[in-house]
Amino acid sequence: MKNLLLLGSFFILKFSFAQEIVPKLDRTTIKIGEPIKYEVKVKYKEGDKIVFPTISDSLNYHIEVLNHRLDTVKTDGKSEIVQQLELTGYDAGKFHIPAFIIQKNGKDLTTKQLEIEIQDIAVDTTKNAIFPIKPVMEEQYSMRDYWNKYWLYGILALILFIIGIVLVVLYIRAKSKLSTKESYKTPYDEAKASLKALDAKKYLKRGEQKEYYTQLSFIIRRYLGRVYHFSALEILSDDLVKYTATKQDILPEDVQKFKQFLFDADLVKFAKQQFDDSTTSLHRNWMEEFIERVKPLEIPENEDLQKDHVTGEKYKQFNNN
Fold first, then answer.
1. Each residue's pLDDT tens digit, 53-84
2. Radius of gyration (Cα) for the chain, nearest Å?
3. pLDDT per residue over 30-61, tens digit each?
4. Which positions, given as ranges, span the membrane (predicted)?
5. 271 vs 179 pLDDT, higher one
C-alpha cells in the first residue's frame, strides 16, 4: 500500500511540473526562410529560482534562431516567465525542435519535442523564365568613386608637386644669382654694374637716403676688398681709411674724400642726417671716378711680368671669387 502511495505521488508531482511548461508554435508549416515563433511559458511565484537554457544561433543543423528574448507576464494575479524564439530553416523537410531543460528551484523541467515542416518554394517556369548565369562584369567607376578610394594618394601627390615647384623656383633663382655673379669677370665690372643698379632704384627721389648710402658704402667696401684681398666689409670706417692710405696707388686726396664719404654715410645711417642733392651727387661722382682710378688691369699671360712693357703701368691682381 505504501509503495502505491509513493508511486501515485510521483505521477502527481510529475504531472504538476509538466503543467508548468507550455511549449507552443504559432504554426507548424512554413516556407523555406520564413520565420516561425516558438514560445515556452513557466509559472513562478516570488522566491522561485528559474534558469533557462542558453540559446545559440541554431537549435540543430536544420533550424536556425533569428531572435530570442525573455519576458515576465502577470495576468489575473499569476506570474509567468515567457521565452520567445523566432526560428526558420533553409532546407525542405520535416524537422524536430529539440526539447529544452529548464531548472526551477534546482529541479529539471523538460519541454516537449515539437515537429515543423519546411516546404520548398515552387517555381513556375512558364511565367518566370529562367535565364543562364551572367558572366562576371567589370564595375564602372565614377570620378567620385576614384576620389573616395584614392584621395589620400591624390593629396600626397599634390603636396609633392608643390614641393617640386618650390624647389625648381629656388634652383632657378639660385642659378640666376650665380650666373649674375659669375658674369662679373672683375671687381671693376661688378662695381660698375652695382652703381648702375643703385641709380635705377631711385632711392634719392623717394627721400630714402639711409638705404642709398648703405648700398653705396657696401659697393665701395666690396670693391676695395676684392681688389686688395682683405675683409673690407667687416672692419670699422676709421680702420678702413687707415688701410687704404697705405696703398701707394691710391692718391692722398682720394683717401681724404673716402674718409669724408664714410663719415657722412655713418651720419645718414646712424644719426638720420639728411644731405642736399649737391652733396649726394658729389659723393656719387667721386666714387665712380675713384673706382676708375684704382681699376685693376688684366693679368698678363706671363705672370712673372710686373708691368706692361708698352705703357709701363703696373698690374694689380684681384680675386675673381
1. 888 888 888 899 988 888 888 877 678 888 88
2. 54
3. 888 889 999 988 888 888 888 888 888 888 88
4. 150-172
5. 271
Q: Rounded to whole angstroms, what are the CA distances from 136 to 141, 286, 297? A: 16, 90, 85
Cell numbers standing for residue 231: 675683409
Assessment of whether the complete model's pTM goes beyond 0.90: no
Task: Cite the DSSP H helix spans in the chain.
Answer: 2-20, 143-183, 187-201, 209-228, 237-245, 252-271, 277-293
The CATH number, out of the four listed (3.40.50.720, 2.60.40.10, 2.60.40.420, 3.40.30.10), of the domain defined by the range 19-119: 2.60.40.10
Q: How confident is the model at residue 210 (pLDDT cuts 50, 70, 90)?
A: very high
| pLDDT beyond 70 at 306 | no
Q: Where are the domains of the chain?
A: 19-119, 145-179, 187-294
> Between the CA of residue 225 and those of 115, 148, 213, 297, 304, what are the distances in Å?
111, 63, 18, 16, 24
Longest dimension (CA), the chain: 162
Q: To 10 degrees, the CA torsion angle through 140, 144, 146, 150?
A: -160
